Amino acid sequence: MSVFVRRHVVASTFASTSRTTTPCVTARGYASARKMAKNQVKGGVKESEPEPERKAGGGKRVGTFMPLSAAQLKHPLTTVPSKLEESPIFSAGALTRTSVGKVMQFSKPQNGVLKAYGVPKNLVVEFRVLSSPYSVVRDVTISTAELLEAASSKPSSETRAVITGQAGSGKSFLLLQSVEYCVSKGWIVLYVPRAINLVNSSTPHVYDERTRTYLQPEFTFELLRRFEQVNASAMKQIQITRPFAKGNKKLASGAQLSELIKLGTSDKTLAPAVFDAVLHEVARQTQRPVLLAVDDFQALYCKTTYRDTQFQGIKSYHLSLPRVLLEYAGGMRNFAKGAVLGAISNSSTEYQPCVELREALGLSHPLPVSPYLRRSPELVAYAKGLRNIAVPDTFQVSEAAALFNLWGQDHALHHRPTDEVFLTMFTAASGNPRNFVWREMLSSLSLSP
Amino acid sequence: MHILGVLLPENQLARHALQNFFGVGPMIAARICARMAIHDRCKVRELTQSQTTSLTAFLSSPSTYPEAKHVPLASLKFKAPAAKPLPTPAPTTNERKDTLLKSLKIETELKKEIKENIAHQRMIGSYVGRRHMAHLPVRGQRTKSNAAIAKRLNRIERHL
Lengths: 449, 160
What we know:
The complex is a heterodimer of chains A (449) and B (160).
Chain A: H1 7-13, E1 25-28, H2 30-41, E2 64-67, E3 103-105, H3 113-117, H4 121-129, E4 134-136, H5 139-151, E5 160-164, H6 171-184, E6 188-192, H7 196-199, E7 206-208, E8 213-215, H8 217-230, H9 232-237, E9 244-246, E10 249-251, H10 257-266, H11 271-284, E11 290-295, H12 320-330, E12 338-343, H13 355-361, H14 377-383, E13 387-390, H15 397-409, H16 419-428, H17 433-442
Parallel strand pairs in A: 5-12, 5-13, 6-11, 11-12
Antiparallel strand pairs in A: 1-2, 3-4, 7-8, 9-10
Helix pairs in contact in A: 5-6, 8-10, 10-11
Chain B: E1 2-3, E2 6-7, H1 14-17, H2 26-35, H3 49-60, H4 99-102, H5 107-123, H6 127-133, H7 148-153
Antiparallel strand pairs in B: 1-2
Helix pairs in contact in B: 5-6
């Protein structure tokens, strides 16, 4: 059988933002295009199928926005320069109390975290529409930055926090801001944007006798590769203290960590062992603090879709990579300096926060929970000591206004950016950040009626 | 890819492609994939050589394929040793045995069993056998109308 370069694993496991220099995009509604073709193929003049009823709550179809190529941009509007380039770049130095309510763009993609690690699924389309990825600085951004600043001199077991909030309140954005903050401060950052891909049986798994867990070589390989890309300078400064030996690959102690990583990125079968060793060295060193950031954090505590050879479900803590993340989250392992930050996502109905996690974070349960319901002792242990960072459910008016102005300056709105339009959109969205962007501003771009 | 003469399209998910075998449906396919450590989103073109070999060995003779071994899993406080793995603990007596895959029949074996069942019904002179002989529905369906499938397919020497 021919060996395949598994690009699709990269594409599905880690999605990177597509960069465009212009705000002109096409809206692509796949389902409506297919319906149209079906009507035409059947021949004759056929009445178009009735439009689906708008869902209660305003479920307007937005479509998938793909950037146009430069050759297609012939309209004079597309040559107008965007003012987004003038907004400050998100960094630790630019983040002060006075910058609350300001819009900042993330670091340039060439060197950026977004390009290397990718972004959560619900942010991909949002980042495509504007000329450059952006975010709004909120109060909770500053408080999280202060928390991370305090954590930079303490072990990570003392700073283990989970970002929670209502759907669309900005949890993933806050986590992304925290990651960018730490990268700009020179931290070592390990970011997993879609932890669901660790537990949904989308990557190969193989049992390892030594660790008594199931390794995920391909996912670990990709994570290691991206880790090296973001933290290249730090890897050259750290020396390994434990000699590494696996198969016929050996590395003596005192070698640079970047050489160890190269072993893992050159051979997928070595990736899990190398990742383990790298994490051990990174946790031990005190030169730079370490941030472990995980989005879709609740998926680590859920049932996985993996099955063992006897068709029994494999628990998440029996998969090597989720187990490592859980051990750092639970405080069983810690970085000498740094923090562990997670963000819960409500997008997936299959991976909802479990009872143990909700109780540890003090969250309310959607349904009554019996006190006789058995709590898994392992999950209780992995969730013990987690701190809750609650994100406000709504934007402040100044924050929403800054975002609205940004869209106007980037020529991304089809309406004239007046106060009336802004207040209409803000009120219709009830201040919810996702609804404000998706249902109000993005929908104004949608070409479907 | 071909396994035992059956084409498994390269672009299909392995769990779906395995259903091209006569006698393998979604449940058995899921079990086979779990047995061979094939993850859910694995496509046929991504199967490794060892997985393909194991699949071929299993599907050629499911009853003689070695049973799945019990593997110990790390407990909460388990620390992996630096070099060699720890000795495997003895399996407990009340472990579940997988009889579903052990007694699996596919392709020719399954077709032979079906034909033998029909022949047995005829041999003992049962109602079911008589209905097969008469090319009529067997399970109490109406014959006043419909029954076209039964008239076409119900035979003693049924074509499978």
